[in-house]
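Cross-posted from the bioinformatics board.
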Amino acid sequence: SQQGEEDPQALSIQEGENATMNCSYKTSINNLQWYRQNSGRGLVHLILIRSNEREKHSGRLRVTLDTSKKSSSLLITASRAADTASYFCAPDTGRRALTFGSGTRLQVQP
Amino acid sequence: EAGVAQSPRYKIIEKRQSVAFWCNPISGHATLYWYQQILGQGPKLLIQFQNNGVVDDSQLPKDRFSAERLKGVDSTLKIQPAKLEDSAVYLCASSPLSGTPTQYFGPGTRLTVL
């Protein structure tokens, strides 16, 4: 499996603003997953986008995937203090073993 | 549906001691993963089981780490002897064999080696 690299490493915004974080990877994938990790907790799956999809929505989350550029973005709209967490992307080559980057640490100020 | 259970939640040991972590995956999930997460980094896969067989243990430091999954359900990860650099959170995750490859994570065990 391969590692996704998230950018930026850290992001601080005000409540109500949108947060955008990006992910780049290196080889062909079957799908790409995004996970959230609150401080001191395990990871929680947020959304999965398949290689033949370009955009996917789930509540306040919007994920895009550009396989030609080998990149993905996660947009959180109308952020809340509870969105404060680390966010990880996980490119999946089909082996079901995920490799995580260092993540984007999002801080939402109330 | 109960989630992935892990115990203990916290463990403090001296270097060169031994430690074991336990994981109970979601019922029916054939695939189980152990990850190591060092502070400030993302989780790193240590070992992947499918039922009670090992699929990938290429990043498991086999001179000191061992893992088993008896009967394809619960799993135990052991470190013997521990080193200072083993201080980390050890995460267990599980996923079904077919369908969406989402992984479900437990709360983790935070290990401190003094």
